Amino acid sequence: MVDLEQVRTDLENLMTDTVRVRRPTGETAPEDGAPVWATIYEGAGALLSTHGQIAVRQLLGADWLGEASAWYQLMTPLSAPVADPGDQVEVVGGDEGFAGRTWFVEARTQASTVEVVRVTRLDEQTGALAVGV
User: Fold this and answer.
1) How much is the pLDDT for 131?
2) Longest Cα separation, the chain
């Protein structure tokens, strides 16, 4: 039998970045009309490309992240809130390769009867789409 607590610990040990997930409030800033964002989570996480997802599968010997069509997935602890489409994700500490890059949540965080981490599909945004970040 699989020790789910050990799998959860192993996956959480891979969450070496600090990620910030923000949600639009529906309000705009009076000075420039930019969207106003509320931080719903800031803490441990891992942002994985498709290659990173394959590496995690090989490290753990099982596919705990599931198949996804998304190029990027965000992995957060189960204590993190569920992300909604349109939420914005930034890596604010950890891997410097993520500096200045922004992702938006494609679909609601995956849910399952058996979960070991939260997995959220992301779409990277640049240029005009990332304005207001």
Assistant:
1) 46
2) 58
CATH of the domain at 8: 2.40.10.270
Task: Give the position of tokens 């490309």.
Answer: 49
Sequence-distant (6+) residues with CB within 8 A of 93 are 17, 18
d(CA 34, CA 14): 35
Mean pLDDT, rounded, for 91-104:
89
Pull the structure tokens for residue 6: 């050990």
Mean pLDDT of the chain: 83
Give the domain range for residue 123. 4-130
Report whether 87 contacts 21 (CB < 8 A): yes
Give the number of domains in the chain. 1
**List of residues 6+ apart from 113 with CB closer than 8 A:** none
